[in-house]
Write a structure and sequence with these properties.
Layout lengths: L3 H12 L5 H34 L1 H5 L1 H11 L9 E2 L5 E2 L2 H19 L5
Antiparallel strand pairs: 1-2
């Protein structure tokens, strides 16, 4: 776990930061210590995961963990569903595209200036 004292010291250094050289040095040192403690905590977590995966029970879970890691790094590329004007959920691509077309037309219609 990351040392809360180091993070609080960093926050205090930022909060009370002035333009003197000693304050800047204190801030740099607090920032460096906070980064170091975060890196140590991350390495510890990685090492625990490696040890777990190297055990006999963990070898069965390698593919599950790899799948979870890959899924967590994926971007959401497209919208899979949308509600129409009546509140019905549309999931078919053609229906979703048509609903978006109607919606944008409606927006464009209202954004045009009214002729007098």
């Amino acid at each position: 776990m990351v040392s809360l004292k180091l993070l609080r010291r960093k926050e205090d250094a930022i909060r009370h930061k002035t333009k003197t050289a000693s304050d800047r040095n204190n801030h740099k040192e607090a920032r460096r210590n906070a980064r170091r403690s975060v890196a140590i905590a991350q390495e510890k977590t990685r090492q625990e995961l490696v040890n777990e995966l190297e055990s006999t029970a963990g070898k069965k879970n390698v593919y599950r963990v790899a799948k979870q890691m890959a899924k967590s790094r994926q971007d959401v590329v497209e919208v899979n569903c949308v509600k129409d004007a009546n509140g019905k959920v549309l999931v078919e691509n053609d229906q979703v595209k048509e609903e978006w077309r109607k919606y944008t037309e409606k927006l464009l219609r209202f954004s045009q200036p009214v002729k007098k």
